[in-house]
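Worked Example 4.2. Consider the chain below.
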Amino acid sequence: MNTILKIAVFILVQSFMCVDVSLAAELSAPKEADKSALNSAIQTMCNKSIVAIGENAHGDGHSLIIKAGLVEALVEKCGFNTVLFESSTYEFIPIARKQRTAETISQELIENAVGGVWKFEKEMQPLLQFMTEKVNAGQLEIGGLDYQVGGLGQPFSNDTLALELTEGLPADRRVLCRDLFKNWVYNTALPKQIESEEMAQSERLNCISQMENTLKNISEPDQQTKKERIDMFENFVALMKADNASQQVRLVTRARMMIENSFTFINRKGKNIKVIIWCHNAHAAKSTELFADYNGADNLGTALKNRFGETFFSLSITAQKGVYRWSKGIEKPLPSAPKNALENLAIKGENNESYFIGTDTLLELGPRPAAMFYHNYQVADWNNLFDGILVLNEEFSPHSTRPGW
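Applying the procedure from the previous section yields the following structure tokens:
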């Protein structure tokens, strides 16, 4: 069952969100040791149509600086016009609606959509400001790929979504369905007439069946809004149906919806495809050979590689040493790299500079240990999984605006 922190906690967190702009800019500035690697990666990806930029774990501060720098450079220098995040697909809908009516989009809306995994980090603040300016100038489209709900500080996903999808139901069913979805997101008390969680889930699925029928008859002001509502519903249905399934089913279902959502955005761009996908290394990988739970199903990177071939580029980020944020207030050191690990081979020069490894070099290196997923070392032929790898000289934890993080 999905749960989120109580609203009071969210309000408390927001009170600490005033960021020292100069500190954020300093934290997000590319380090001297990174510049050569960054330039090589940008040059390699500039002419691609779709690039997926991964990260090893969602607690890597140095990687955030690198990713933010890559996004800005690809937009400014290479003409990329869309950034899709591994975050709530629903929370970007208020932004898209405001874009269609030429309304100003606040940075807060963009932060909510990008989500709590990233928006609280000081390393992200300049990028959030950059995207706000570009979106309002009509130079950038942003979107989300993930069908999950329950994220901290995402009011559309957690509240408005269910209100919109149930608005065509009869009054009594509308109230019950909304209460059931609220219980599912916030872990509130079940409605009095619902005796168990099993009964609640059965009724939620009944709600979905009724919602599907009513959505067909709701009049929308334009085709884009109608398509948007259908996409919302399809994501929500997939999420609800996978909720009580096995971990393997949830994994594959989530990947399938991320693929479908990415294709929805990409297809809209027509021939003008210049899309950045901001995600974890596991989603960027163009093969699932190290992930048994996929059981032959595609992840996002595999599907994009299959469809777009050489115009797609998968970039992984790893580091030779350092620490990362493992959970709230807890850092963990990166494990020592085996002698023949890719991370040890990549770092070169007296200044211990970060290093970009391109496709040809990956092919030459062949199978060897590397830590691409949650900083755990595995042996693989990494050319099969990524088109390029950025090896940072040192990882560090992000600097949070939230007390205790």
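The first helix runs from residue 7 to 14. The radius of gyration is 22 Å. Compare this with Example 4.1 before moving on.
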